[in-house]
């Protein structure tokens, strides 16, 4: 397995579904991008969406989560300039199905290492 396809995530096997890897607000963020793969959202839009869904979370937490998704290869971001400086627009690189496939492949690979 190529290193760039491995997912650096912690998995809690006592939970189910996406909750094994992500916090509630992170699941909301992922769902937004997976529901509209053409969407490119900044941290402000993501923060408002998460809070509108009933999760009270800071904008910094949203930014940190979005950057972790980029590091894990789930999302990517483009840098834009505008009022106030540079802004990242985040978008999904893989679908939810592809996420599960990659997590399974990473788990199998790591479990077989000695």
Describe, in short, the structure shown:
With 114 residues, the chain is α+β, with helices and mostly antiparallel strands. It has four helices and two strands. Strand 1 (75-82) and strand 2 form a beta hairpin.
Could you explain the architecture of this structure?
The protein has a two-stranded antiparallel sheet. It has 114 residues and is α+β, with helices and mostly antiparallel strands. Helix content is 46%, strand content 14%. Strand 1 and strand 2 form a beta hairpin. The chain has helices at 24-35, 43-52, 59-71, 96-112, and strands at residues 75-82, 85-92. The model has no long low-confidence stretch (mean pLDDT 92).
DSSP strand content: 5-15%
Number of strands: 2
Low-pLDDT runs of 5+ residues are: none
| CATH-level-2 architecture | Orthogonal Bundle
Rg, nearest Å: 15 Å
CATH class label: Mainly Alpha
The quaternary state of the protein chains shown equals: single chain
Query: What is the CATH superfamily classification?
Result: Winged helix-like DNA-binding domain superfamily/Winged helix DNA-binding domain
CATH fold-level label: Arc Repressor Mutant, subunit A
- What are the secondary-structure elements, in order, as H or E? HHHEEH
Report the principal-axis shape. globular
Q: How many separate helices?
A: 4
Number of structural units classed as domains: 1
- Biggest sheet, open or closed, and with what strands and sense? 2 strands, antiparallel
Strand order of the largest sheet: 1-2
